[in-house]
Amino acid sequence: MRYTVWSNPVQFTYTTSILSRATVFHILATLLTIIPPLLMAYRSQGFWLRTATYREQPEIHFKHEVIMLADLAKGGQVGWATFNTVNDFLVENVRIPVIKSREEDNNRDGVLDGLTISMQMPVRPEEEVVGVTAILLFDIKLHTFSSVSMTGLVLLSGSGYSGSMVDMVGDITMVQREHLAHRGRDTRYLDSPVPKDSELPEDFHIPTILKEYSERNISVRLENSYTTWSPGRGLPYFTLSATIRYPVQTLSYTPGFWQVIKWGWVQYLSVLLVFMYVATSIKTFVFSQQILPTLVTQPGKQ
């Protein structure tokens, strides 16, 4: 009883002159093996990887910079901000709130997962709050591909009948108007959306701030949000509370040269292997059956 440990095929060599039908057939078969797979992969869309996506949880920190404005039923606004210029505009309508905030890392991976904040603004007995708007500023960083550092803005707002409290919950979501680079450093939007050094009242008008902020190619906003307005009057303060989560983001970027080449090569190779198998079978049949005359050399013979 014999046990087969290895086997290899017998190889025949087929030779011919350069100017022959067999040579022309070989060249044409080779070209038809290489070129059509390239055309098929290219025409099937997505051959060149122009954009790609990845998931990353941004490094987000609350900067403790706030603008809070409350609309009154009889007209006018009261509020407070961490920016002295805003407080100067409010004059006697400044109401310094009690602010409590806490950021937590729930899964203890070293990246913060959310912010819980409460702002209690004192109001007078005759003042009825029918709406509230708050702007919170965040320091946001990305590290996986390009290193992005930016200042993000989150708008909190609610309105209703004379109220005593508004409660909000939502996720910070990154908004892209252009793709991230695959490497490098991006600090274009590191400056605060709130013009701290300006002395013009219109620069601190919330619609103006939001309009200029929305023109940024990379920004954040509150998504998946829910707001509960609690009516009430006569209380010594109005409370705005919010729970803001920092979830993992799906971000798009422009891939680098080698990633583009790798992606294209994988698509080309997957089609090329099929053509190579078919071409090899055809060549074997043509030459082994001597459809095109060639000189056959057997192994071990000259």
Strands, helices and their partners?
Elements (H helix, E strand, L loop, with lengths): L12 E3 L5 H23 L8 E5 L2 E14 L4 E5 L2 H7 L7 E7 L9 E9 L6 E14 L4 E30 L8 E2 L19 H9 L3 E14 L5 E9 L3 E5 L3 H32 L6 E3 L5
Parallel strand pairs: 8-9, 8-11
Antiparallel strand pairs: 1-13, 2-12, 3-4, 3-7, 5-6, 6-11, 7-8, 8-10
Helix pairs in contact: 1-4
Task: Describe the fold and architecture.
With about 300 residues, this protein is α+β, with helices and mostly antiparallel strands. Helix content is about 25%, strand content about 40%. The strands form 3 sheets. Strands 3, 4, 5, 6, 7, 8, 9, 10 and 11 form a 9-stranded mixed β-sheet that branches. A two-stranded antiparallel sheet has the order 1-13. Strands 2-12 form a two-stranded antiparallel ribbon. Strand 7 and strand 8 (about 145-175) form a beta hairpin. The mean pLDDT is about 90.
Spell out the key features of this protein.
single chain; alpha+beta; 4 helices; 13 strands; about 25% helix; rod-shaped
**Secondary structure: number of strands:** 13
Mean pLDDT: 91
Beta-strand percentage range:
35-45%
Q: Structural class of the helix and strand makeup?
A: alpha+beta
Task: Briefly summarize what is shown.
The longest helix is centred in the C-terminal third of the chain and has 32 residues, at 257-288. This protein is α+β, with helices and mostly antiparallel strands and 302 residues long.
